[in-house]
Amino acid sequence: MFSYIWFIVILSAGSNFYCQGRELEIHLDENPPKSVTLMCMNLPYDETFAEWKKDGSFLPEQPHHRFSPDRKNLTISPLKVRDSGRYSCGSLTLKRFSKPIDLTFIPAKPSVEPSSYNQVVGQNLNLTCDQIKAPSVGVTWSRNDTRLQSKDRFTFPTNRILAITSLEKEDEGKYTCIATTKYGSTESDYFNVAIFFPCSKPSVQLQRARVNEHNNMSLTCQHLNGTSARYTWNKNGHRIIPSNRFVFLDRGHNLVILGVQRPDQGIYQCSAANAFGRETSDPVTVHVNYKSNTTWIVSVCVVLALLMCAVVAAAYFKCRKSIQAADK
Ligand SMILES: *[C@@H]1O[C@H](CO)[C@@H](O)[C@H](O)[C@H]1NC(C)=O
Ligand SMILES: *[C@@H]1O[C@H](CO)[C@@H](O)[C@H](O)[C@H]1NC(C)=O
Ligand SMILES: *[C@@H]1O[C@H](CO)[C@@H](O)[C@H](O)[C@H]1NC(C)=O
Ligand SMILES: *[C@@H]1O[C@H](CO)[C@@H](O)[C@H](O)[C@H]1NC(C)=O
Ligand SMILES: *[C@@H]1O[C@H](CO)[C@@H](O)[C@H](O)[C@H]1NC(C)=O
């Protein structure tokens, strides 16, 4: 079984406290400790000497570093700003070192915590600068690397909160908070604010309201607002399932009907939806032009009737001629 090698850090600054395998922040503006003791724990018992590394290299001997005889305790006194860094201890013979801990003299890296991950237009948003331990740490905010001032819809209700009221599209961007002490400052990672728009009511756009049989037809679900909208289509109240004749393009924003057939005539509607709602268009009627059977039958009948008339007329005139000839 492997035993972990880990640390205890003791600050002797009146009250002792320790941390284990974590970041250790020392706020030099806050009554800093006179010394720090790093203890190498859980070395296998037959390992008599601990080795120390700082920022990946073996720790050089320094007058303000003191080791216990087994080198398992390292006391740094007096503490200097240049002692900040990443420390680990371990065993050379075992070739194993502890997880490092960071000794820092500036604020720990803050993080931005939003009051809501769904930043919907018109709503309010609070961004909190988190992970700040000392109240004396100052916080400033920036968007796209430009410092934000308290103005109009932007306020700072507390030292750590940026409050944005009635979100607008222009509030999109990369926000950071910066924690500052007189010894330096630390910036959070970017927090991306993306404004979502609920879908507004769509309308079905047709190239032509009448389409000839066997042609292709394209219908578009048009709408003004709606972030990452997805679309569904209905014909005569029934959901259209994409198929090789009903082709959905751009998540269904366009519906293309290939080789229109007579039953495709009907009433079409589309819906646009995202996480913030669904809206459905008014119905639109599509007519399919086709050569109907009745038209064909009527045409044939008319032609036949005309032919018969011609025959009858011809017979009549022929008859009359022969009667007139006989009369003479
Ligand atoms: C290491 O430091 C701790 C805390 O100060 C102490 O209790 C312990 O005896 C020390 N160990 C050695 C070997 O000096
Ligand atoms: C933002 O923070 C302020 C101050 O803490 C609070 O009054 C407000 O309700 C918060 N707003 C939101 C949207 O969380
Ligand atoms: C911030 O940058 C993003 C692109 O990175 C841009 O879309 C946004 O409009 C910018 N915001 C402001 C307020 O300039
Ligand atoms: C689209 O969003 C803007 C900004 O919120 C709003 O002013 C507008 O009324 C919306 N349009 C529609 C059709 O919903
Ligand atoms: C309909 O679209 C298909 C596929 O895009 C194409 O092959 C075909 O020629 C089109 N037909 C007509 C009548 O435009």
TrEMBL record:
Q: Which UniProt keywords apply?
A: Disulfide bond, Glycoprotein, Immunoglobulin domain, Membrane, Signal, Transmembrane, Transmembrane helix
Is-annotated flag, keyword Ribosomal protein? no
Q: Which residues form the Ig-like domain?
A: 34-89, 110-194, 202-285
Report the transmembrane regions from the record.
296-317
Annotated CDD domains: Ig
One Pfam family this sequence matches = I-set
According to the record, the signal peptide region is 1-21
- Is the keyword Membrane in the record? yes
Q: What is this protein called?
A: Ig-like domain-containing protein
Write down the species: Eptatretus burgeri
